[in-house]
């Protein structure tokens, strides 16, 4: 079977590259570019907006499968300047042969934009369980919080910094590292200075996957303060490293994390609740270890890369048949 | 006295104060010119006909060789002495000389007594001007310059301070922050607050019953903290106070603010009003009952001053110059930045007290008229430049 992939970034995101690599290993011939797509058995669009911006993909011949991953479905349609995307979604969903959603939450959002639920398949993100492995918990003098992800408003780092300010004021010895490209016009850096947190916060430029795995291994808690997500891959990666996670209740996060089991789930835009959850974990190393173990078990059971690839291959073969 | 004001774009919709500033100096007899990276000549002719012929484009970036040759030729023809002196004096300035010459060309022809950068960031690439033009270099410090520009580069302004003759700050807070960024305490500085022409702002009627009509005026930019205002509004409404908000402004962060509106369940309570000119903004102010400002960084806040001039009570954060802008408790209520709980409480107080809204609004209008008149500001700037050349 031949899969024609359209709308890829020049340098595809790691989780998409990982998926395509897995599909190729499963015997699916992956080709990119429009000409290849025309002769393919199935055309695959990793990004929803491609189907709206480039509706010609539906006229190439092969059936089209598209993915709903996050912001293009649950953020951009509410932007008054993106009405063309919002208005184009129902038509794109109608013409697609099948739609992949990264979470139930995203499927519900997409249904609000005209997706027939019968056409949707939820396949949640997966993590490379060999690359992200448990390691002994660190025992630093000051607890280490880590976030990984591009510095942009959707990631909600301002709220994490407000929570950290509360922890500082309450006397907790804690440091916080945010790893990711600064793409927020200086907002996060300003908040670090404005909240007088320069001594305990480090902004680190983007790291490769090995280095991310190493950072997660050194962390006491992985913090995801996002306002919006599909399902954040980095949370699964931290769980694979047997680290407890504190995440906001957005997108499909509760489909990967249960409050009190693998970590804590707190409301979005609520620094006080986030600070309380963090303080609880920081005070209880045994609970952190237990949550880490539970996290590893959960991604082993439900977010194994091999299972994700199998499910995706089955979805594509079903459409091609 | 000839003064060249250096800005990014002219005129800029969100920086109408720069047009007022130039016109005010002109009215006081200063031979004022404006040098900008980007000039909209049609807008100058429409908004400030007195400045036609006084606004000069100054190309940024690296020009091609023919453009530089043309620049030198033009300089030699128009201002031979100044150009010769410039070329001689900039011998040792190293790389980027041609780009610099093309950009400095308008200044060569003008031979100003003072070059004044309206943002400190603009002074960083102009520290050579006193030596090559024989002029004085002065600068304004705005919130952007010291609150978040170049926070990752501690020495960003190290070369600027020695090149400056005099510094203008919008208020005491910015003077303190300038020193935190390395400004020597003995650099002559002058506090000149922004001004507002209260007679040009229509008066609002903040009293009355019924659902509370809130307004925010500010660019859709993270520093304006619109999302914190929306969080406060969501709390206010959850507490049973019926209130709506109009957000007046344009900017790059529409998606973030629009998403906050949706996530907080405020789609029906919040309206974006975009593309307004100053007259349009005045008309919006006149229809509102409370002005609310959520900024996390704000040098002074012209919009907050205009709201007071319109007779609106103000609820604002304490970011930088805002505490100097309103008179807390008299013209408005000051709340901590990033604190939607405190902001919601302040709004609830005003929602339940129309008479207080009216009293705060009247005091604000009075304060704007008395303390922030354009004439005083223009006179202060004339003194500022006179001191610089003295």
Describe the structure.
The complex is a heterodimer of chains A (321) and B (390). In chain A, 41% of the residues lie in helices and 16% in strands. Chain A has helices at 14-25, 34-38, 48-53, 71-74, 83-95, 104-111, 157-169, 187-194, 209-218, 233-240, 271-282, 285-302, 305-320, and strands spanning 2-5, 29-32, 42-45, 64-68, 98-101, 120-122, 143-148, 174-179, 201-204, 221-224, 245-248, 263-266. The longest helix of chain A is centred in the C-terminal third of the chain and has 18 residues, at 285-302. Chain B has helices spanning 16-27, 41-47, 65-78, 80-89, 97-110, 120-123, 129-133, 143-147, 160-163, 172-180, 226-238, 254-263, 278-287, 302-309, 322-325, 340-351, 354-371, 374-389; strands at 2-10, 31-39, 55-57, 114-117, 136-141, 166-169, 189-191, 212-217, 243-248, 270-273, 290-293, 314-317, 332-335. Chain B is elongated. Chain A binds chain B through residues 75-76, 78-82, 153-154, 158, 162, 184-187, 189-191, 193-194, 227-228, 268-269, and chain B through 147-149, 151-152, 221-223, 231, 252-256, 258-264, 272, 296-297, 337-338.
